[in-house]
Amino acid sequence: MSDIVISVRNLTKCFGDFVAVDHISFDVYRGEIFGFLGANGAGKTTAMRMLCGLSFPTSGEGSVAGCDVQCEGERIKRHIGYMSQRFSLYNDLSVWENMDLFAGIYGLSKKETAERAAELLAKLDFVSERDTLVGALPLGWKQKLSFAIATIHRPEVVFLDEPTGGVDPVTRRQFWEMIYEAADAGTTIFVTTHYMDEAEYCSRVSIMVDGVVRALDTPARLKQQFAAGSMDEVFRILARGARRGE
Amino acid sequence: MNAIDIQSLSKRFGRVQALDAVSFSVGKGELFGLIGPDGAGKTTLFRLLTTLLTPNSGTASVDGFDIVNDYLSIRSRVGYMPGRFSLYPDLTVEENLDFFAALFGVRARESYDLVAPIYKQIEPFRKRRAGKLSGGMKQKLALSCALIHRPSVLFLDEPTTGVDAVSRSEFWDMLASLQQKGITILVSTPYMDEASRCDRIALCNEGHILGIDTPNDIVRRFDAPLYAVRASNMYALLSAARRIEGVAECYPFGEVHHLVTDRGFDPSRFLGQLNELDDLSIEPVVPTIEDIFIKWMKR
Q1: Is A178 part of the contact surface with chain B (CB cutoff 8 Å)?
Q2: What are phi and psi of B171, to 5 degrees?
Q3: Beta strands in chain A (DSSP E)
Q4: Can you give the residue range of the structural domain that contains A178?
Q5: Which one of B168, B193, B219 terminates a domain?
Q6: Does residue A30 lie in a domain region?
Q7: Weakly modelled stretches of chain B, pLDDT under 50
């Protein structure tokens, strides 16, 4: 049996009378690329915030990288990687300074930082760009660097929130190859996207509608289940029934 | 006369050449799409055509009026929906609409027939402040406000970015109905799959236009054999396929990988060379807009 990295049972979040996330349950296994999809307003962001230790559930339980989502928010943050939609490195710092800064935030020692930075620079083929200001890098390189820095503390799971929005088709694919490679090396990937072709790259996909997980399986089995030719069709079939605007 | 005429238009910001000698025309009543990623120059082009910026060189006209000399005439006859929500969050839905109508010296009631199909969807919330609307509703209000003075040309900068697949599709249905009323529409999007909803498209990247054509004809310009390949281990297939002679490119494409090859490529030989991969298959496929974009980007 595979290792479980994320496990949630009946996870629920209410804001007043509004049930943003309504008893969701699922497991994510080690080394999986788990696609987390949903229409606007389905509750994706709220669910993801709970998994990242940024918000506590109203009820239900869950664990992320061995930490309890009910009471160990701070511990979760140290055990996960996170890359947001918007490029969030410091443009006025060099490649190495960004690595040093984030390594420091995650509590790596000077020695660990030096080793890990050297390793990532070599892997990215960035050794010659060590002292280049991040703002001067092409978009594709920035994306790769963001992902590398999100994994600088070797988290068990990395959360990627729409990492490829507005990115050109070549860079988008380079980015996905990096995700494939990380997953192949055992890192668990939890990713949201609006591009349905990217849903096909995931090991398994969950689709949220109106706060509930309405479908969860491999892309191939979802297409079979909904008699659809593509994940785009599967998504449309499910999202069309959504009652919540956003 | 064309609705939009652009001749070698260039715009530079410091060392960044945002737009580099771009030329094209948009016919009256046409739904024309600018398709490209961030940094392609789409927003700069919109701001030049709506007279919010002046070019470093080149000329352009909208509805026959020059974007530099006749800017005031242009402003009254175009509608512009910027990429960022730019209505007044503290005004209600209704107040925003009335405000924009007043700016253009019209009454909201007089244009109601034009905006009704869109505005009706948010009318139940007309007393709500615009800042409290959902993303989809803000988008509809912004479009209503851009239409309130019955513009002849409508500029929409990435109206569907960050919007889910179903809402995106509905938005394009709305544009099609506006086009029926004779409005010329220039719309930009980073989503290649939206290209088919346009009469013609321009693929753009880093300040350049890579090519312009109808969605059907642009993919016919893909000038190499293209195959879809799959195997049980898709990641292993990617690197293995790239090592095979005759394979020019192999890249992920949804549930398959696309393989661009030389003319002499033999698919059955390819299968033989990679027989260590389980469930390997290969079949010829028709190129999509995304394939041609990738090809032209690497040109």
Answers
A1: no
A2: -65, -40
A3: 4-15, 18-29, 33-38, 59-64, 67-68, 80-83, 157-161, 188-192, 204-209, 212-217
A4: 4-89+157-239
A5: B219
A6: yes
A7: none
For residues B210 and B282, membership in a common domain is answered with no
pLDDT at A87: 65
Secondary structure, 3-state, B266-297: CHHHHHHHCCCCCCCEEEECCCCHHHHHHHHH
pLDDT in tens, A29-55: 999 999 999 887 889 989 999 999 999
Q: Do B124 and B95 have their domain in common? A: yes
A165: confidence class by pLDDT, cuts 50, 70, 90: confident
- State the Cα–Cα distance between residues B282 and B259, nearest whole angstrom: 9
Assess whether B185 and B234 both reside in one domain. Answer: no
A9 inside domain: yes
The whole-model pTM stands at: 0.85
Are B182 and B234 part of one and the same domain?
A: no
Determine the distance from the C-alpha atom of residue B295 to the mean position of all C-alpha atoms in its chain, rounded to a whole number.
18
Mutation target among B42, B93, B164, B167 for the A interface, most CBs of A within 10 A = B164
Task: Please report, for the domain that includes residue A203, its CATH number.
Answer: 3.40.50.300
Q: For the domain that residue B49 is a member of, what is the CATH number? A: 3.40.50.300
pLDDT digits (tens, 9 = 90+) for B207-218: 999 999 999 999
Residue A119 domain-assigned (yes or no): no
Q: Which residues contact residue B249 at a Cβ distance below 8 angstroms, ignoring those fewer than 6 apart?
A: B258, B259, B260, B294, B298
Number of separate domains in chain B = 2
* Confidence grade of residue A130 (pLDDT, cut at 50, 70, 90): very high
Encoded amino acid at B52, one letter: L
Q: Which residues on chain B are in Cβ contact (under 8 Å) with A240?
A: 166
Indicate whether B267 and B164 sit together in one domain. no
Domain CATH number, residue B255: 3.30.70.2070
DSSP secondary structure letter of residue B111: G
Q: Coil, strand, or helix at residue A48?
A: helix
Is the pLDDT confidence value at A170 over 60? yes
Q: Which of B162, B238, B254 sits opposite A197 (nearest CB)?
A: B254
Q: Tell me whether residue A77 is in a domain.
A: yes
Q: For residues B54 and B44, what is the distance between their CA atoms, to the nearest angstrom?
A: 10
Q: How far is B169 from chain A (nearest CA, A)?
A: 10
- Asked if A41 is an interface residue toward chain B (Cβ–Cβ < 8 A), one would say yes
Domain that holds residue B124: 4-219
Helix (H) or strand (E) holding A98: helix A95-105
- ipTM for the predicted complex comes to 0.79
